[in-house]
Amino acid sequence: MHEQTVDVAVIGGGPAGAVAARALAGQGATVLLVDPDRTPARLEGIGERLMAWLRAEGLADRLPDVAPLVPRRASWAGEKTAHNGEHLVERASMDRALRSAAVAAGAEHVQATATLQAEEGTVRVRLSDGREVLARRVIDARGRAAHANRPVMRGPATLAVGGWLSGEAEPGAAVTPFADGWVWIARPGDGRVWAQATLDARADDAPPAERLRAALAAVAPELAGEPEGLSIRECAPVVPTDAIDPRILPAGDAAAGMDPLSGHGMFWAVSGALAAVAAWRTMTERPGPESEALATRYIGERIRETYLRQARLGRDFLRQETRFQDQPFWARRLSFPDDAPVHEAAEPGVKTAIVVVDGLLEEREVVVTAQEPAGVAFVAGVPVVEAWRRLREHGPADLAAEHGEAKARAVVGWLTARGLTETKR
């Protein structure tokens, strides 16, 4: 029997896999999207940055039951705050909607699981329905399951235990710490409540449902009753430490499982998927070992930088809560991944980095600042290093003549905010 061959097999159809499959199919690749459709019913939060991208891509209207922006409250270190906001979404429905968008773009969806075997110049994908498919490249978006049998850097063993209860209809979301961890309580506004406790996996032999009830008794005693639809997930921050195979590009939690307290996990999953698509396109349009080296370096550096930044953000947030630091959950996490600052002090300057230009990877000069230690290549579509030099040598009028008043204002504003606007008059 003739073996099916595809340009790309995307294994895993969560946000990272579905977005990657849609983008690849939209670029003309033959794409097989493999996912068993087993996402448990739970709520997750989407920040406004990701929602803005979904709107721009025409995907927001596909998502069912997305709640309006609700305040993201925290009762932390004895203070109550309300920063930014988030849209509450039914994760299983969201995943199905994004997979549907990938199919509409031309991807083939198979409801199955898969194992991978790298071969000479290709990857053999063995599906749980018995079929085998050859893929020229693979996007591995299987989540944390992709880390099995691989060397990893992993934080303290952590569980997320969630369940549904009944409560107030007023929509909102809140994070509250307690001695044994912290709890996220989300109210979509229909009388249902999703409560999820983040707990130390080693601290207690009690059943997960009992541990969730104990967490709620500590932070929200009004949410009494037996949680329904219990979800138990391992959620320690984790990142593989081995080299990236150019045939198998990771995305989402398969690339790095982020610290849940740092936030923006879904945003990083989607942006990581788009990074993998840019790496695939670069290797496809510019075949050869140089492009493969560039692509794997780009993905690897991006994963490590993002993982460490998010892990340090989570660590610093934990350190702000001083009431429980002698408790095992807190004590085990106050020094992970290290004691380095979230952003190393960086003098403003120029360095070379890999960036995406018109969908392809290139090494370009970028401006490095304390706020952006990884570097920025473009502001308002303008190459910012060139603009910075032009501004210093010739002043803002020359910049406006080259790029127009609106873009010049955006660039000058960005540079001014970082103290980089000394110019010649």
Automatic annotation (TrEMBL):
<dbReference type="InterPro" id="IPR050407">
    <property type="entry name" value="Geranylgeranyl_reductase"/>
</dbReference>
<dbReference type="InterPro" id="IPR036188">
    <property type="entry name" value="FAD/NAD-bd_sf"/>
</dbReference>
<dbReference type="InterPro" id="IPR002938">
    <property type="entry name" value="FAD-bd"/>
</dbReference>
<dbReference type="GO" id="GO:0071949">
    <property type="term" value="F:FAD binding"/>
</dbReference>
<protein>
    <recommendedName>
        <fullName>FAD-binding domain-containing protein</fullName>
    </recommendedName>
</protein>
<dbReference type="Pfam" id="PF01494">
    <property type="entry name" value="FAD_binding_3"/>
</dbReference>
<feature type="domain" description="FAD-binding">
    <location>
        <begin position="6"/>
        <end position="276"/>
    </location>
</feature>
